[in-house]
Amino acid sequence: MNPRVLVLFRNDDLCAWSDPKHEERLLRLFDDYGVPVTMGVVPKVRGWKLDENKALLNLLEKAKANGHELALHGLEHDHHEFERLPLNEAAKRLTEGQNLMKSWFGEHAKTFIPPDNAWVAELLRILPDVGILTVSSGPPLLPLPEDFRATNCFAVDAVTRFLFAPFVKLLPKLAQMPLPHPVPVVVYFHSWEVKRSVHWQRMEKLLRLVKETEGIEAMTFRNAAERYPEAIKYWLRWRDEVTTQQWNELFHDRRFHRIRMLHRYWRDLTDKSVDWLEDWLADAYCAALTGDIEGMERTLNERSRLLFDGCNPLGIVRWLPILANAAVRKLNHRPPTKMEDAFQTITSPIVADIAVNSQSRITPHASRSIVYLSFDRNIIAEHAAMSSKALAKRG
Ligand SMILES: [Zn+2]
Questions:
Q1: pTM for this structure?
Q2: Cα of 116 to ligand 1 centre, how many Å?
């Protein structure tokens, strides 16, 4: 029997600076449940190639042999590199990235994850030329051109990150819906988001659910595109200019944003469920995932009234435990929400300074944010020292 929900786990930002021990622990968890994960590999980070981290390279080779997928996650993870650069420069970077992937892993990546989830639809014209079959981005979603079917390329976008959606509630709900085709759901995360024991428990709970729930099947992007091409194309049919814009507006509606953030903070604290919050979010995400604009709007307007209406005392009372927790959390420790944050949390200002300076020498975009990806303090410190030496030499 065909599954009803295709779950695609996507771990972004594997690079020279990743902590091999942490990544290994994470992979072991996926292996324990026999769930494949697609890993977004950044071939170079500020000049440091992935193969300078031998332990990580070996780990990724082993992962690939075990059925996990290695995707291309940009070339250098430059800020919005595939959104702001001209097409010929993007093509050059894709080719370089693919050549590196081939030299390390014996073949080109089949899946492309644009850094920062930022890209332009024109890329669809060149992606197949560099061997890319599928692209996976995230909100805001791009409208897809009418001749999309002719491009021979699939898009399987993420709608939410691991801790922002109640996947444990959402996936079974989707599996119960009468859907004409299996719906792909991307669960995307970064290794550094799985840090505290409550995150590990959450991940394990989700993996167990995916493994054990009938109608839900986990697979890599490559497998999904090869096995369910019709389903993937079907769920893209609504992505025209107008509908996609409506979708983006609703998705970024501040009520939806607040609820997502609350859930994220809540999940940072405890694995206890908060039914009203999770129900609300699960409904909104079901609608978002299936391109049901009316459903998104309805959830926002009708269900929000109960939560946000100032005249309704329930509205405030219901928020209190979560607000209190979020506030405490925020005061004690601010969890990184972006890689820029992650970089700042784990490195000293001096290191950041070196990085910014080295960056501004080669580019006029002085203000563009600098993105460092890894979570191994020692490796970063070592690289930063090397970087500052190299800069001093250059004068
Ligand atoms: Zn990334």
A1: 0.83
A2: 6
